Amino acid sequence: RSLPGFADCFDLLDNGEEATARDLARQLRDLPRAVLPHDTGASVRILMEALVGDEDPIAEVDELLELSAASWRDGLPSTLLTLAATTFYITRGQSVRAQKAADYAGAEGDCYISLSRALVELANGRPGEALVHAEASLADDKIAPRFASIGRTLAALSMLRLGNLDAAANRIATMATQCLDDRNARFALRFATTSDAALMLSINDKLPKRIASLLVVSANDSRPLSDSTVGEELSSAEIEVLRLVGRNWTNAQIAAQRFVAVHTVRAQRRSVFRKLGASDRRSAVAAAERRGLLD
Description:
Blueprint: H1 6-14, H2 18-27, H3 40-52, H4 58-71, H5 79-91, H6 95-102, H7 111-123, H8 127-138, H9 145-161, H10 165-178, H11 182-188, H12 194-202, H13 209-217, H14 225-228, H15 236-246, H16 251-258, H17 262-276, H18 281-290
């Protein structure tokens, strides 16, 4: 029941044509709303806005979920639409909305809900729980190849964050044997934060050449979860370190100001970057400002 044009959005994004994919999705946004919730159209459009868009139609996404729920006999929104909305909410820093969407009643075993929950758990800094949900998504025999690639990616990211590099490499390597279309894998890699992508590149020598090359090709792809990840709570000490980092203070200056060792500051910076899903000072400060941590 997909609408004409939305498959083209995926094709464009798969080829790295982000702006064109986003613009096409927006051109199709005026289709009758009464039709959209019953279709993949609304889900694809929201997913495109989440992954490569810069608009914040939060109220519209809320409304689409309500329309979808009202249109189905069980009173629940489409599970695919729920995944798209959860992704969108997380990229816009809407952690409460994301959690509410993922707390979906009566959909145990549904691949889209499992993926939604895995995303929320990763965003909240709980990779162990995220891994359970990512693996559950892959156990759904109805999962489509594109979304199976997301499941494998989220499972691998969970393992990476847990420090199990060999298991993560094995999970990523399954993309080479089970994902026949490299574009699906490239699409799934957009769900990794910048720091996650760097971790994957660090184990390139453990991966099949085909996947290792794909990681390099996709290095410049948009990664919207990086700056908007909900993350674990920062301690008061970490927030203070981040304030000083934002002022371009060196580790030595921060250590002197806080009467701690330089290696303590380094460890706190690493912790801050990990919790915020950031790879450098600028992205860490931007993520913290989005969450109101530096007010």
